[in-house]
Design goal:
The chain has 128 residues and is of the alpha+beta class. It has a single domain, classed as Trna Endonuclease, Chain: A, domain 1, CATH 3.40.1350.10. 39% of the residues lie in helices and 32% in strands. It has a five-stranded mixed sheet with strand order 1-2-3-4-5. The longest helix has 27 residues. The termini are far apart.
């Protein structure tokens, strides 16, 4: 055998993290829908990376990174500068693939989830 499969405990831990992330993405989409945004794409894969949520209203296109961790601080820390750069690159690729998504404004938001708490950070990532 060239590789060994993940131990069952590690696989279960990954599955739990995946489920937590999916629930957080669902909750984030519902929260933003209540704010008047429409879901355009979820878990959008581009050559530059994946975008958790793409949402829009009449005037604003949102690219949303969702993080679920044990604490809000851990969730915020997980949005590293490297990940922010990937999000920006992936958004550029997504806009090239979907010119119909163009709006007057584009925003990069982060939604953090931990222990039932949610923090929405508008305009969290910017081009520099």
């Amino acid at each position: 055998m060239l590789f060994s499969p993940l131990p069952p405990a590690r696989t279960a831990k990954r599955r739990a993290a995946e489920m937590s992330g999916r629930h957080a993405e669902h909750d984030a989409a519902a929260y933003l829908a209540a704010q008047g945004f429409v879901l355009l794409a979820e878990r959008l894969r581009t050559g530059a990376g994946e975008i958790d949520l793409v949402m829009a209203d009449r005037d604003t296109l949102l690219f949303v990174e969702v993080k679920a961790r044990a604490s809000l601080a851990e969730a915020a820390y997980a949005v590293s500068p490297r990940q922010q750069a990937r999000l920006l690159a992936a958004a550029g690729a997504a806009m090239a693939q979907h010119p119909e998504w163009a709006r007057n404004g584009t925003r990069f938001d982060v939604m953090l989830f931990a222990g039932g708490a949610c923090q929405h950070i508008e305009d969290a990532v910017r081009y520099q």
